[in-house]
Specification:
This protein is α+β, with helices and mostly antiparallel strands. The chain has one domain. A six-stranded mixed β-sheet has the order 2-1-3-4-6-5. The radius of gyration is 16 Å and the shape is elongated.
Length: 168
């Protein structure tokens, strides 16, 4: 019984560490996006396709598998190569959603941002999924900047729950 309590505590600690790493990664991505915007007349990049781009994945390589049709984008990856080595989600081996960070430009964010703060719809965003074993509310979506829990009331309840960082 003691070993099961210790194992549960260890798993919780690992999950919290992964969520902390995600928030650090989001901060690094935000810095890279702002550097890109500063070099490009204040504009964030467009994905060139009418879908979110899986950051760090090559064009044609799928991500968020249960969300259907999401793929990497070489144009976005190369645009950021001078600013950052795009970080991967700590659970990049997930078999469903949340296996990488997503980038949505202005027009894509409106349809995806259901449940997000209305004033930030039509704003570029980075989307990620918190560790399912640590979060049953939007607490891990909050950090530096503007975070919102989207898709479902419970960010970690299913593949439809995720977090978004709104770039501004």
């Amino acid at each position: 019984m003691l070993s099961s309590v210790i194992l549960a505590s260890l798993n919780d600690a690992r999950a919290k560490a992964r969520d902390t790493l995600r928030l650090q990664n989001i901060h690094q991505l935000e810095t890279a996006f702002n550097m890109y915007a500063n070099d490009n007349g204040g504009n964030f990049p467009t994905t060139g396709i009418n879908a979110p781009a899986c950051l760090g994945k090559a064009s044609g390589v799928s991500c968020w598998k249960s969300s259907g049709g999401l793929v990497g984008n070489d144009t976005i990856n190369s645009a950021f190569s001078k600013y950052i080595k795009i970080p991967q989600d700590p659970l990049s081996n997930r078999t469903s959603g949340g296996d990488s960070y997503l980038y949505l430009n202005n027009s894509q964010s409106q349809g995806v941002a259901v449940g997000c703060i209305n004033q930030y719809q039509n704003t570029p965003m980075i989307v990620w999924m918190p560790d399912k074993s640590t979060t049953n509310n939007d607490s891990m979506c909050k950090g530096v900047g503007v975070y919102a829990c989207c898709g479902s009331v419970n960010c970690a309840s299913s593949d439809t729950g995720y977090c978004a960082y709104f770039l501004k």
